[in-house]
């Protein structure tokens, strides 16, 4: 067995552990920059998994998708986030509405919940349970970050984590969707982030802050 | 090629109007592009009627159902463009908020919505549904006020998250199809899926799981309760032509996506599961929105909740299924669009003339603005479902569907909420129209763009209430055969 085969096997068996680690670190992180780096690392893990899957299943398309993940999610989006955070001249605090201790407990509960949720489906569709659980955990964490962090930037980041989870679910269950659809999805994410960036500037200019929990004029 | 023309016209049109810095010139260019687009959509509809269906490549396809919704888009977008040509006369030059940007974004918005109807592939359908959010977010935040920015941000975030769940549902359906032995390249193609439903249905769990995620995801765009939180904000804060487009076209497009999935899931796993879900969402939306209409103080927010209520009615029609339910649901998508556009146009006039939409600040409108008041009355009577207006026909069809299928609970709730909504509209409108005439309007007369668009909408409501034109009912029947 060659070195590449061994490496591929290792990536495929161990990546979910690393993803759970990023989940736990994300919920305790206090600074936006930490979260951005963690997101970048998380995407890198997923990119590695895409390449490993592509190698094992002999799918040429997977390499293209993997390269897209590397370029867009590991490099471009985090850079853009750093640029946005700098230009907005906002504080670095994520404005968490839960304490780190509470967050860890919630994250642990979500990981447990993910395993419970995929238990019955994992066997019927013949995919590794860990991988599917990691995907569901990412989706849940993304949603959790969106509702519990009040900074507009963190809501965007939560959305990206959620999207990572959906991407991972597609990858583990079906080796990804047709290439053209994946590219379209990436395109939508980029445009979506661009628009959210425009809106963060508008929020800052009209309200003088980026705390979306204080946007509550429209009710009822 | 016929299928691509409307899309190409809109893309080119978006760039062309951006080139006109003069507001009058950009308006004229926009009306011209709009005319071309409607003509090209008419050609598509005619060709679909002649040949049954049109296909371009693997990803674009139009059949009877698409062409029924294209008719809706063509009609409403025409009205909206005419109305907007007068409405935008007060809008100045700003970043992303000048008339030329307005028209360019409207064309992109129409582009995505037409693409939704022309998608043969469920993945492309998702991409385009997400595109509708992206294209319209800047339009919702067009005025750049505190409320508009908040509504735009909320719209973008809530709908993107909601749609993400629809992507998950799409992936689950794809998984079910691939597991059933379909070729991965064709496993998202709607026609191939419909042909393979017996095989997919062997393992109904995954298909049902997919439908749950899809109805939550696209249901967010439809505005089903409890995912409706973005809808009243976006409708109330957007410029009036956009409120009309959101309510009359976007919600229908999302409903169209759910119809496509409903057809697959009903055939694969039996109609009981998806139809029960649709009934639950429909009844919930009707009840909650119907009650919230009573307590609204902002005219456009009240109309937005009325849209939620009518989406509930359409969902109930779909959930009942059968010829009556389906007929009622499809007809209601069109009727509701026309009535809601008329109401939003009137609300736009109110805002222009009084500078506010607060209903408790306005009274005695029937004397100060007789024409707009007449439009409000026609629209109001139509939207609560009174004869002789067209919404009566479709609501009556859905109600008879509920009785023939012995869904007495649904029928009772339906009737109760209709009367509550009637009471709500009557109460609010009587206070608006009668009494002491307090603020004085800027001008009491309608301008040509306003009475053209509002007149056409009003006449259409009455005409369709008397009898459904033959050509229209042919299209409606073709749409129904696609789903059955």
Structure description:
The complex is a heterodimer of chains A (220) and B (484). With 220 residues, chain A is mainly α. Chain A has one domain. Helix content of chain A is 81%, strand content 0%. Chain A is built from seven helices and no strands. The termini of chain A are far apart. Chain B is an all-alpha fold and 484 residues long. Chain B has three domains: 1-120; 135-270, no CATH class; 294-484, no CATH class. Chain B contains 20 helices and two strands. Chain B has helices at 4-18, 23-51, 64-87, 99-118, 122-140, 146-179, 190-195, 197-200, 204-222, 230-237, 240-269, 272-294, 299-320, 322-354, 365-368, 370-383, 390-404, 408-433, 448-466, 470-483, and strands spanning 54-56, 60-62. In chain B, strands 1-2 form a two-stranded antiparallel sheet. In chain B, a hairpin with a 3-residue loop joins strand 1 and strand 2 (60-62). Chain B is globular, with a radius of gyration of 21 Å. At the A-B interface, helix 5, helix 6 and helix 7 of A face helix 5, helix 6, helix 9 and helix 10 of B.
Provide keyphrases for this structure:
heterodimer; A: 220 residues; mainly alpha; 7 helices; B: 484 residues; two-stranded antiparallel sheet; 78% helix
TL;DR?
The complex is a heterodimer of chains A (220) and B (484). Chain A has 220 residues and is an all-alpha fold.
